[in-house]
Amino acid sequence: MARAVYLLILTIGALATRAQGPLDLIVRTTGDSIHCTITHVRSDRLFYTVLEGGRAKRARIGLGEVALYKRDGFFPVEPGRVVASAEPDAPPKERERGKHEWLFSASYGYSHRTAAVSGNIPQEYRSYMERLRAGRHASGSIHWSAMERLAIGVMYNGFFGSRNSTTITVTQADGTTRQGAMSDDIRMNWYGLDVLFRPLADKKVSPYGSIGAGYITYLDKATYIEAYTVKANSVAAHLRAGVDINATDKLSLGAQLGWLTGRIKIFKIDTGDQTVEWQLPEPISEGLGRIDLAVMLRFRL
């Protein structure tokens, strides 16, 4: 009872001393007040702007730190008894001020393909193929926060740097030998839809997970004595999990682990003079599965 009276006195005093300035008020549990414009009310935090040096500065505060808050045209509200801005019975001004969050993300890191090297490959080529399993990747995405803990968006993920080369000697049909280069430069581009889950989005350190499905293209700029190009495409899906560390209200850094899966059976081989389609015999297929380890940069708007 004494605490309630104390908070009431603080609220009335803060309102009485506000002759000019922002129209909204936040009273902290510590007793101090913030004169501001509340821009967005969520079930766990408030978003607001304050004037500093004649410029508007955005900020946010968890409801656990708020004793009371008041918005222009509304009665003082107790935290935990807020009408969600998406509900149809919310006041008009409440609906107008509720804004969804846009997330822009980019990542870069190491990738390792998980498909095993076929046992039919001669031993002298196995080490060559093993070195093609490692590469790098870069990704970018845009998400829209459809719900408080869930965002939907589009993502691009490009795999590159999986290359190797050596010199080989080939015995031809007439018994003669020919020496030349063997090389591969493999690239894969994935485009798709992605759903992002952020169970603790308001914390300093916030875990997240995502799942997506889309379209992947495969390109191998190869040489086997003569140069040729291998192309293919398929559907592929991915799972990702990581952690964000908030650097500012808008920017976070993090680490991410991802897994992509997909398979290809039909390839197009372009030798420059002609293009042929080659289908792998059953049950053989080229596995596109890989593990991605990356650092993540995320910007919120």
Keywords:
301 residues; mainly beta; eight-stranded antiparallel beta barrel; 10% helix; 59% strand; rod-shaped
Describe the structure.
The strands form 2 sheets. Strands 6-7-8-9-10-11-12-16 form an 8-stranded antiparallel β-barrel. A 5-stranded antiparallel beta sheet has the order 4-3-2-1-5, with helices on one face. The two termini are about 40 Å apart. Helix content is about 10%, strand content about 60%. It has about 300 residues and is mainly beta. A hairpin with a 5-residue loop joins strand 8 (about 150-170) and strand 9 (about 175-195). Mean pLDDT is about 85; it is low at about 5-20 and about 85-100. The chain contains 3 helices and 16 strands.
Tell me the structural class.
Answer: mainly beta
Total beta strand runs: 16
User: Which whole number gives the mean pLDDT?
Assistant: 84
Estimate what percentage of residues fall within beta strands. Answer: over 45%
End-to-end span in angstroms? Answer: 41 Å
- Binned, the helix content reads under 10%
Low-confidence stretches at least 5 residues in length (pLDDT < 50)? 4-20, 84-99
Largest sheet: 8 strands, antiparallel, barrel
Give the helix/strand layout.
Layout: H1 2-16, E1 24-28, E2 33-41, E3 45-52, E4 55-62, E5 66-70, H2 92-97, E6 102-113, H3 123-131, E7 134-144, E8 150-171, E9 177-197, E10 205-224, E11 226-246, E12 251-264, E13 266-270, E14 275-279, E15 286-287, E16 290-300
Antiparallel strand pairs: 1-2, 1-5, 2-3, 3-4, 6-7, 6-16, 7-8, 8-9, 9-10, 10-11, 11-12, 11-13, 12-15, 12-16, 13-14
Offer a quick outline of the entry:
This protein has 301 residues and is mostly beta strands.
